[in-house]
Structure formats: C-alpha cells, structure tokens
Amino acid sequence: MLARACWGVIVLLWVDSACAGEIHLEKLYFGIETFFYPADVTARQDHGSTALVSQAELQGALGERWSARLTPFARVDFKDSHRSLFDLREAELDYAQERWRLAVGSRRVSWSVTESVNIVPYQVVDIINQRDLAGDPAGQEKMGAAMAVASYQADNTLVQAYLLPWFRPRRFPSTEAREQPLRGLVDLNDNIRYVSGAGRYRQAVALRIEESFYAANLALIQYHGYAPQPIIEPNFATGRSRQLYYLIDMSAFTVQATYGKWLLKSESAHFNAHENAVRFT
C-alpha cells in the first residue's frame, strides 16, 4: 500500500508540473505478443500465450530548468496473469543547474557495457532495475525503479549518487507458463522474504563515478542494498517455494575502449554479503 501511495504521489507531481509547461508525445505504440510452442513439456503447461502491450513516451520542458518524462507501460495477457503488468518505466522530474542535476521519480538505469552478460537473466553490474522474467524470460525487460539521483558533470568526470527508497521483487512466470524454468512443478511467485526487518522498504544507495579518456570510458560503482537475484528454495513435494532477498555491498567497474577497429568492453563486480546472517554469507 505504501509503494502504491508513493507511485500515486509521483504521478500527481508529474501531472501537476506538466500542466505548467509543454509536454510532447514522443512515441506511442500498441502491439501483440504471442508465444507458441508446438511440443508439450508437461501437461500442466500451455502451448503459449497472447498479450496486448502498449507504451507511451511523453517528455517536455517545464520552464527554464525543469523538465519531465513519463513512460507508462501496460501488458494484458489472456492466459498468464503473472505476465499482466502496469509499470511506470519512467515518471521523472529533472532539475538542471549548470553542472548539477537532480532527478526524482521512476527511472530505468543502464550500467552494463557488455552485451554478452545480458543474454541470460543474470545481472553483473546493472542491478538498479529489477527484471520482469514473467514478461521476458531472457531477462531483457527492466521494470522502473523509484529513485532520487543527484549528479555532477565535470569536464571529463560524471559523479552520480542514487537513493532508492524501496525494492521491487523479481517477477517469474506462473506454473502454467511454458517459459517457467522448473517445468511448472514449483510456484516461484510466493513466500517472499527479506533479511532486513524493513522488508522491501529498506533503502538502497549507490555511487557511480565515470571518467572519460581520449579513447576509453572507465566507471567505478559502489552499491549497497538488496541483490536483485533471490535465493530460491524449491519444494517439489508441495509445489511451493521460498524466496530470500539478501543484502550486498557491490564494488564494480566497467571499461569501454576503442583502439582502431577494435571495441573492447569489460565489467567486473565483487559482492560482499557480510551484513546477512551467517548461513546466508
């Protein structure tokens, strides 16, 4: 309820600010998503699913220093209720003052530089936004995350500080979905637990410093909060599972460099789980 109330406040602030400026509809699309599999895996799983999807992108200036962006997304699936989703991919107010910028609202952030780590739903450094595995089993679909971001742009250096007020759990396909990783034998969408007593409302913080050189970009990242991938304990006897979201300190760096016709990319991270109980370390 608290999260929904906060989303409501964000939207109201965005609409109120938008009324004072000029907002443009940049993009709008409607589509149909269909998955079909000719072969059965288990009797409980459907051959596929069909969903209606829509997304709009609105943005504009609200004065000399203020701007706004709104990207609502909706999916209605006719078979798998877990794929049905309304999400504010972006609902953000921005304030710019010379080299400083402050952004408040919902946003999708990309820290990854290597495409290879994105072909599976495992996040190395790009962990700010949660993934919607019910909507896209490959893990490419990011959900919006509520945040406040303060940034400073120097000549060759960008410093960004993030405050994330709450955490969004990962969405998994239902047991009837063909994409369900455990063949529909265990429900992955129930019994979510958190190591912190604050639950999903434990705040997370992050700091990212990016340095641009002549032919390379280097970024250093420090993140403290929940890991986006939960520890899952399936119980095949009962068909139920338990999910545990644990705290991490992530220290990471990314590198992109261009040498002639070569484009070199790398991202690495170290995850420290010292804040959790001993059995989860």
In words, what does this structure look like?
- This protein has one helix and 14 strands.
- The protein is mainly beta.
- The strands form two sheets. The protein has an eleven-stranded antiparallel β-sheet, with helices on one face. Strands 8-12-11 form a three-stranded mixed β-sheet, with no helix packed on it.
- A hairpin with a 4-residue loop joins strand 11 and strand 12.
- The mean pLDDT is 85.
List keywords for this structure.
49% strand, 11-stranded antiparallel β-sheet, 14 strands, 3-stranded mixed β-sheet, 281 residues, 6% helix, globular, mainly beta
Offer a quick outline of the entry:
This protein has 281 residues and is mostly beta strands. The chain contains 1 helix and 14 strands.
N-to-C order of helices and strands: HEEEEEEEEEEEEEE
Amount of helix:
under 10%
Please tell me what the overall shape is: globular
Instruction: Strand order, main sheet: write it out.
Output: 1-2-3-4-5-6-7-9-10-13-14
How many helices? The count is 1
* Binned strand content: over 45%
Largest sheet: 11 strands, antiparallel
Structural class: mainly beta
Radius of gyration, whole Å:
20 Å
Q: Distance between termini?
A: 31 Å
Query: Stretches where pLDDT falls below 50 for ≥5 residues?
Result: none
How many β-strand runs?
A: 14
Could you tell me the mean pLDDT? 85
